[in-house]
Every structure is written in C-alpha cells, then in structure tokens.
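Researcher: Here's my situation. A collaborator sent me these components and asked whether they could plausibly form a single complex. I don't have experimental data yet, so a predicted model of the whole assembly would be a useful starting point for our discussion.
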Amino acid sequence: MITTEQGPPTKPAAKYRSQFRIYVDIMRVIQREQNEAKPTRILSGANLSHDRLVRYLGELKALDIIHEFGSEEKVFGLTQKGVEFMNNFRKVEAFAEAFGFKI
Amino acid sequence: MMRNAEKHGFSFSCRLGVELAPPTWFLGFDSLMEFIAFIIAMAVGFQARKSYTLTKERTLLYLNSSFILIGTGLLVEGLADLIVLLSRFHRGFVFLSSVGYTIDFFAQVLAYGILVFAYLQQTRTWSSQLTAAAIPILFFEHNAFSELILIFLLAYIAAQTAINYSVAKTTNSLLVFSAFTLLTIAHVFFLFYTIEPIFFAFAHIAQLLGFLLLLQMLFKVNKAQ
C-alpha cells in the first residue's frame, strides 16, 4: 500500500493531483516506456517540475516500487512490487470508473 | 401453508400499509434470491474496501459502506422471511417479516443515501453541507410511501450511472447502469405489488438480475489485466 497525503475534501476535484495520483502517473510513464524510462520522459509524461520529479522518484525508490539502472544515463524501471501495484491499481480504477467515480 | 398464514391474519409484508400476500408458489424463493443478492452486495462492498485501502479515495469508502448496508438489509430480511416460512407462519414469528422489511428499508435508504451523497460530492452540484443536512431528513421520513423514497434515490443513482456510461462507454459502466436501472424497476414492481401479487415475484427477479449484473462487473474488473 502506498500512503498518500490528501487535501481537504471540500476543495474542488481535478485541480490538484494527489501524491498517490502523481505516483501512478510516474509509474504509467515508466510502463509506457517499456520499463526503461529516462528522467526527461518521466518529467514531461507525468507533467512534473524537476524538483518534484527528483522528490517523487526518491520516494518511489524508497518504497521499492521503482529501481534505477543504467551506467551513463539514469534509467528507471518498475520493480516486481511496482508491476503488481499497477495491476491492482488498474482493477481498482476500472471498478471505480464503472460507478463513475474518478480516482 | 399460505392458507395457514391467512388464517392468522398474516400479511407477508405491509408495504404501503396495505395487507399484502405474495404468490404462494414464490414463498421461499424470495429469501433465496435475497441471500444471493446479499453475497453479491458483500462482494461489491469488499472490492470497494480493497480499492479504498489502496487509494484512500473517500468515494470508495462510501461505496463500501453503501453495499455493506445493502447486504446487511438483504440478509436480515431474507432471514426473517425464512424463519417465518420455516415456522409455518406460527403466530409468534409472523411479526419478524415486518421487522425484517423495516430494517431492510432503513438500511437501503441509508445505503442509497450514501451513494447519492457520493455522487453529489463528485459532481458538486450541491454544497456538501447542504447534502449532509438533507440526508437525515430522508432517514426519518419513513411513511406509507417507503418504496417511493427508494425509487427516488435509485432513479437518481441510475441517472448518474447513465451519464457515466454515456461518457465512459465501457462494458463495466453499462453493467452498473443496467444494474441500478433493474434495482429501480424492482422497487417500482414492489409498488405495483400492492395492486397485483405477481409483482412481488417480478420485483425479486428484477432485484436479483440487478445484483447479478454487478457480479458480472466484478468478474470483469478482476479478470482484466
């Protein structure tokens, strides 16, 4: 489970991405890049500033969701835990969307 | 058995305050259908709980609470009706049917009220404070038109799921929309039951079909990779 910070419930939805949603967006970009995503790709794909990207990548590495490899240039891939998380998330997303709830 | 029930002045259900008796051949099937619907409602509630644990999204917690309440209501009513049936409509047990229905009614109003609240929060057509103030009114407005209250709540949910289907166009959203439409129709049939007993059977069949569609959606969601 990934714990997230959540804003007050009365604030308008879709204005802010939760930390959880940002994690998912980063993982999505990594999957889209065949599990070998360069930081620049993640930065543009997940629509993050450099500072926030560094912070979130660090957090995901600490959670053992992603791992870093590549000798000359940094490349990120999902760990087994990350792949399992994304599989579970897709089910959750499909379930919530069936009722019309956005995650 | 039904003759015995009628001899004791038993009405299987006192919906809308009218003495009602369901078709004799259908007795027992209603409890069976309610038990199946209970299992499905709990499965949907469990899936919502699992989803909430992963995402901490509050609407999923509402969905969880709603289906657990629906399941509990169905279980209580199914058990109450079954006990009455097994007791061969013994004078000391017949009141249980009305108790079961009342508990199921309040559980459903609460459950569908929570779902309406979740949709209103999502669409934000009302302020959350106004909605929170409106829901308790629904709880305590129990009167002869109990089915109309449920039809009103379910029709709103069915409309929301229809809007969702028109946007998402996925099989899962179609299944949920169809399920809530059938649940609405089931309660319309419960209303018609006051006119014609056969609608009691139609209502239970429509309700079961609605829950079976939700089960199919659950299978599809969990099968997808």
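Model: Some features of this prediction you could bring to your collaborator: Chain A touches chain B through 26 residues (CB under 8 Å). The two ends of chain A are 15 Å apart (CA to CA).
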